[in-house]
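Below is a filled-in request sheet from our internal design queue. Each sheet records the structural input a requester submitted and the sequence that came back. We keep these sheets so that new team members can see what a complete request looks like end to end.

REQUESTER: design group, bay 2
PRIORITY: normal
MODE: inverse folding
CHAIN LENGTH: 419
BACKBONE (tokenized):
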């Protein structure tokens, strides 16, 4: 789930002779310049590479515009999500914590990761000489893995709420601990990216000075370390995908059974139910206390309503529908996350198999390659859009917020959660 780049040029190892960097490649020996600590040499090299940067940026302009749009939508949308879910709903649930955590990570990607990628495309040949190439790839990898782990945790949480509704559910404190654990595990999994990424030399055919991009560092490019780490990332990603798919399949099967059961109830004459029948009805609503089907006094109220006939079924059906909307929303977020990574992972796999596969790209090929390579940023901008379509209360809160800004009216706190 990390980032992986290859430039459409031939790479080779370097060595240093009397203070000069020398590269031996298929074109012969090329002098790259003195050590990077020599300021004059760096300035000359940077000036020489500017035409190459400009030409590449022109070809990659569609990819830069694509990233700029994602950055704008993601910054605005995720800021609104954080504001609405932390200030507009009186009742905070575990799902609320997960939504806010995802929005924070997406906002971090939009504020730091996407601008870095735009700069990388603008200065493709010289960024390795003027920037630290280790920190931002680590941040992007860390954010991606953290988001993936949170989505796995959300899938487990939804499974318990729908398929194990009568059992004890995760509290708000448990949700905070789970998010913290996801962050810690992500930091450990992302740590190998620090020595992996760095300045990588770009051989310019016929040039007396070669470029330097931010990618897999020259020190490790010829080793098996990048391959092993990419395989490890593939394993982590597809393990999470399998867990998410299996859990949501079980959830949708349970929801189908709930619908069949509620349909049967509406067709069957209602009589005063026993306590066992009431418990069975409650279990088939697929909700927990946090999603609306409360335990204790509220559950007894639902039981009494259920014994009265259709009114009780309507109450349980409404609360079950709310839980199903939440599940649908979180499923769509997980699905978009998975699909957004597929083009990027495809490029990673193809590069591991053939390192020269994407050499000598030109024109629209450069733009298409860079868009696919950075496809995973789509999920950082898409979540607020999904909330807008799936959450009635979120739409209402945003609409009231916009209306209040224009009318300057009082702040109104919605009584429900954000689903």
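RETURNED SEQUENCE:
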């Amino acid at each position: 789930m990390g980032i992986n780049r290859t430039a459409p040029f031939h790479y080779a190892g370097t060595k240093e002779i009397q203070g000069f960097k020398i590269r031996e490649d298929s074109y012969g020996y090329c002098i790259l310049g003195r050590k990077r600590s020599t300021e004059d040499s760096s300035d000359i090299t940077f000036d020489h590479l500017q035409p190459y940067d400009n030409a590449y940026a022109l070809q990659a302009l569609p990819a830069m515009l694509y990233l700029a749009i994602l950055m704008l939508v993601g910054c605005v949308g995720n800021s609104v999500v954080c504001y609405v879910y932390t200030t507009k709903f009186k009742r905070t649930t575990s799902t609320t914590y997960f939504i806010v955590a995802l929005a924070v990570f997406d906002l971090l990607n939009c504020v730091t990761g996407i601008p870095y990628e735009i700069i990388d495309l603008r200065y493709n040949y010289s960024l390795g000489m003027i920037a630290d190439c280790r920190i931002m790839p680590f941040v992007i990898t860390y954010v991606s893995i953290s988001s993936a782990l949170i989505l796995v945790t959300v899938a487990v949480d939804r499974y318990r709420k729908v398929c194990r509704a009568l059992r004890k559910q995760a509290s708000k404190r448990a949700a905070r601990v789970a998010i913290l654990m996801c962050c810690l595990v992500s930091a450990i999994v992302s740590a190998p990216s620090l020595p992996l990424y760095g300045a990588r030399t770009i051989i310019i055919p016929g040039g007396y000075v070669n470029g330097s991009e931010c990618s897999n560092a020259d020190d490790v490019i010829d080793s098996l370390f990048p391959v092993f780490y990419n395989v490890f990332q593939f394993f982590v990603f597809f393990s999470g995908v399998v867990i998410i798919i299996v859990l949501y399949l079980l959830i949708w099967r349970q929801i189908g059974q709930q619908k069949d059961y509620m349909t049967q109830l509406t067709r069957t004459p209602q009589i005063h139910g026993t306590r066992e029948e009431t418990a069975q009805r409650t279990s088939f609503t697929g909700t927990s206390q946090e999603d609306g089907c409360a335990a204790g006094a509220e559950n007894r109220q639902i039981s009494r309503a259920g014994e009265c006939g259709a009114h009780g079924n309507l109450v349980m059906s409404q609360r079950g529908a709310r839980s199903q909307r939440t599940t649908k929303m979180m499923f769509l977020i997980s699905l978009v996350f998975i699909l957004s990574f597929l083009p990027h992972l495809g490029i990673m796999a193809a590069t591991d198999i053939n390192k020269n596969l994407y050499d000598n790209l030109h024109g629209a090929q450069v733009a298409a390659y860079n868009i696919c390579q950075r496809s995973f940023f789509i999920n950082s901008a898409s979540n607020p859009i999904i909330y807008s379509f799936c959450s009635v209360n979120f739409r209402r809160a945003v609409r009231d917020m916009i209306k209040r800004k224009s009318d300057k009216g009082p702040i109104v706190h919605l009584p429900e959660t954000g689903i």
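SHEET NOTES:
- Residues 310-353 form the longest helix (44 residues).
- The two ends are 29 Å apart (CA to CA).
FILED BY: M.R.
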